[in-house]
Each structure stands twice: as C-alpha cells, then as structure tokens.
Write a structure and sequence with these properties.
31% of the residues lie in helices and 12% in strands. The protein is built from twelve helices and 15 strands.
C-alpha cells in the first residue's frame, strides 16, 4: 500500500477483473531493514500459486531474481522521478532501456510500467499535478521507440480518492474529483488510446480506521444487514460500491469499457484495534473466494485483475498514516505465514524456505532497573525512533503488556534490528540480554533474520526517521502507566 488514504465511504474501492483466468498478484515492497534474499522470495511467491508481482521501483536484484520465473511483473517508477521524466524524453528512454528493455531481454516478463504511486493523493497537495501526465506520455513514447509498447503497457496506480459520489452512498452518483477531473480525463483518454488499464488501490480497512461509525460488516464479503440499493444494483460491501463508483465515473465520461486493475487490496494484522489476524484472514479469504469464483461487481460481473497488499511486513515504512502501515503482509518479515489462506492452488500459505536467524537471545529491561530512572523515557524514545514499536498500544498484539513489558519490547526491537550487537543492549542501567523468550500470548518478541547483502545498509536513518511519532506516543503511555 502504500500511502495515506483520504476519503472514507466512497473512496475505498476494489476492482474486480482478474480471477482464476488471470491469476492473483501480490505487491512486493522493500521498505524493510532485513530483506529475505530475492531468490527465496520468488520461490515463496511461486510456491503459493501467485502469478503476478507488482513492484514499487525497478530493483536490480529483484528483477534479476524474476528472470525466467514465469511471473508477470509490473515495475514501478517512484514519484520523485516524475519531474525528471516529464521534462526529458531522453530520461524516459534511458529509464525504459535500463529498467525494462534490458530485463525483458533477460527473461523477465514485464507487462506494466507503473508511472508514480498514488501521485494524485490529496495529501500530496498537488505536488505532481503538472509532471504526472507528461511523464506518462514520455514513458509511453519510450516504450514505443523500444518496440515494447504491445507487451508493456503504462498505467498509474491511483488512490481511490481521485473519484467520489459526493454526499451520496450510491455508486451511480460517482465522478472524478472536481479539482483533478480535467487531468484525470486526459489520463483516462491516453490510457484508452494506448490499450492500457486504470489502476486503483482500494482499502476498506481505511474506511473503518478513519470513521469509528463505519459499519464494520460492510468492509467484508460475508453479508451486510443494510445493503445499498442503487436502481436495482445491490451493494453488500464497500469493495463493490467503491469499485462501481469508479465504473460510473469512467462511464459518465465516455470510457465505460476501460479495463480496471486493483493495484492494492488487503488488511493489516497489527498496529490498530481493527488490524488483527482474525479480521485480515476474514477479509483476504473473502476476497480470494470471490477471485476464485470469478465474482465481479454489480456493474462489472466476471473476473477481477488484482494485486494483494502485501507480501511481507515492512518494518521501515512510514507510520504517518498509522501504525498499521508496517503490518500489511500475508507473511511476517521473515516469510512466516500469518494465518491460513487459500490462494487457489494451495489450501494454506507456504512460507519462505532457508531463512537464517540470529541467535536466540533478547534484550529486555533488567529486573533491577528502577522505573523512576529519568533514563527510562529517553531510552524508550530512542529505541522506538530507531526500531519498530508499532505492535505496542491499544488494541495491538502487544497491547496487554505491563509497563516493564512495554519497555522490554522496545529494547528488544532495537536490539534485533541492529543485529544483536552488544552495544545495542546498553541502555544505561536499564537493559540486559536474556536467553529466555519473553514472548507472551499473541505478543511475540521477534528474533531478526540474519542480515544479507540485500538488507538496508542504513537502518538508523530509515527506521529512525519513520519511528519518531510513535515513540513520542509511547513515552506518554509509559508515564500513564507510571
């Protein structure tokens, strides 16, 4: 997923065009401190019957691992590259040559080039309004020049907030957002002219997260007591309603037959009271059952083209949208399955093989530590700013820990992310290393996987810059307990 989703009810859409015929896809993100080797990830993807992969950039190691894998690939262009590509045809040609042509010739089955990632998100305040369309056109021109435009199509993964139905709950009232409508119509016309698809990211979870009054059952696929009747079209879940809001927006503007791809869809498992294993399993299995049965929406019956979000948890993602951002994976950071899920060819998820772990030891709060020590809040703040404490807090997997458990969790997260270095468990007069697993119930004190050449070389910068909002909240929570 990637980014903060704006509107609530009509803005969380889900596209349905890829069923068993097309195969299910998955988003492979890389904002993690310790990466599983790409070859192992590719094997895990194939072991689970997943047939398509969506990337957020064009990583050299990942694309090499995808060579001759039989997996269809969507490569991504980060938003920060849009300006350069918009202002230079040569830059676009160079990008295509380096990140598409060279890999296609090496056996990578690239089908899409995704120009930007939710670039029209309202939270960006129009930062990419002037560069998005020119970049899209230049990439398309470069694909044509490279002789790849029939195989590789351009698209733009957009957030569902580019359209809405105003104050109405009916999809038939949908249209593109007024402030970007002219741009959207240019983009849609261009996609249509070039045989491309409209890609949209749909997150029913965000409806529930943003609005405590949102009817929870409407986010899932197993029935809703108050369905919406839109001129005889019955909507029992927000996915169908949001998806068809887009269908209506396209149809009203003359593009009723444009293909739709659901670029991201999923449910997080931690970091919020509605983000847990049970609800994630309920949502994702409900969606996969629809995929396998080629169940579309009232306006678009039939198969759905979709990419689950996401493959594995990413412990260095920004938590500005919410602490759940680091917990979207079907698998934990080490490739361990989180819950039972049938993706079509197998009845249960198959984990990564050959994963190597650090030693079985943990950094915890020393039994002799004084909770009144002024170093406690400073140490916890530092640990969480440079690690991952998103499993702490109300309604989370570790939400029932006492004050000492909270501190131990923070210390251990820092210790593990920093490869169990001795210096990583030297919080002044507070910490100690133990060989006894402090995990309790659903709260797991993780042991990190061994670092590899594919892991981040700048853990402090990546995790630290992203963790500060949470660590400040945690310090407040600690003092509340005290």
């Amino acid at each position: 997923m990637g980014l903060f989703r704006g509107l609530v009810v009509a803005l969380l859409c889900f596209n349905v065009l890829v069923g068993f015929v097309f195969g299910i896809g998955v988003n492979w993100g890389t904002q993690d401190t310790h990466a599983i080797p790409p070859a192992s990830v590719v094997k895990m993807i194939k072991d689970n019957g997943i047939q398509k992969v969506k990337l957020f950039d064009a990583d050299y190691n990942i694309l090499n691992a995808l060579s001759k894998s039989g997996l269809q690939v969507m490569v991504g262009i980060p938003n920060e590259m849009l300006s350069g590509l918009a202002n230079s045809v040569a830059a676009a040609e160079n990008w295509v040559s380096k990140n598409v042509s060279s890999y296609v010739s090496n056996g990578v089955d690239i089908r899409y080039a995704a120009v930007g990632n939710e670039p029209l998100l309202s939270a960006f305040n129009g930062s990419f309004l002037t560069t998005l369309f020119p970049a899209l056109k230049n990439i398309q021109s470069a694909l044509i020049k490279a002789g790849l435009s029939n195989q590789v199509k351009v698209t733009i993964p957009l957030n569902a907030d580019v359209y809405d139905s105003g104050t109405s709950t009916k999809p038939s009232d949908g249209d593109f957002r007024a402030d970007t409508k002219d741009l959207m119509l240019n983009i849609v016309q261009f996609l249509s002219d070039n045989g491309a698809a409209f890609t949209v990211n749909i997150y029913p979870f965000i409806s529930l997260y943003n609005n405590p009054g949102f009817p929870a059952d409407y986010a899932f696929f197993d029935g809703f007591s108050s369905p919406i009747d839109d001129n005889g079209k019955i909507y029992q879940n927000v996915f169908d309603a949001n998806h068809d809001t887009l269908v209506w927006a396209l149809a009203k503007n003359g593009f009723g037959n444009l293909s739709i791809i659901v670029g991201e869809i999923g449910w997080p498992t931690d970091g919020d009271q509605n983000a847990n294993l049970q609800l994630a399993q309920r949502f994702n299995q409900g969606f996969m059952t629809r995929i396998k049965n080629n169940v579309g929406t009232p306006m678009r019956p039939g198969p759905v083209d979709a990419y689950l979000f996401s493959l594995v948890d990413e412990d260095a993602k920004s938590i500005q949208p919410g602490n759940f951002e680091r917990h979207w994976g079907l698998f934990y950071f080490d490739g361990t399955p989180k819950y039972q899920l049938s993706l079509g060819t197998a009845n249960a998820l198959v984990g990564a093989s050959g994963v190597k772990y650090l030693a079985k030891k943990w950094c915890v709060l020393s039994p002799s530590a004084n909770l009144d020590d002024p170093e406690v809040p400073l140490s916890v703040s530092y640990a969480c700013a440079n690690a991952d404490c998103t499993s702490l807090g109300y309604g989370t997997s570790c939400g029932n820990l006492d004050i000492r458990g909270n501190i131990s969790y923070a210390f251990n997260s820092y210790y593990q992310i920093h490869d169990q270095l001795d210096t990583a468990c030297r919080f002044p007069n507070l910490s100690t290393v133990t060989n006894s697993d402090p995990s309790t119930g659903d709260c797991k004190f993780r042991i990190m996987i061994e670092p590899s050449e594919y892991s981040s070389s700048s853990v402090n910068v990546r995790a630290g810059a992203l963790g500060k909002p949470l660590c400040l909240i945690l310090v407040v929570l600690l003092y509340a307990f005290l």
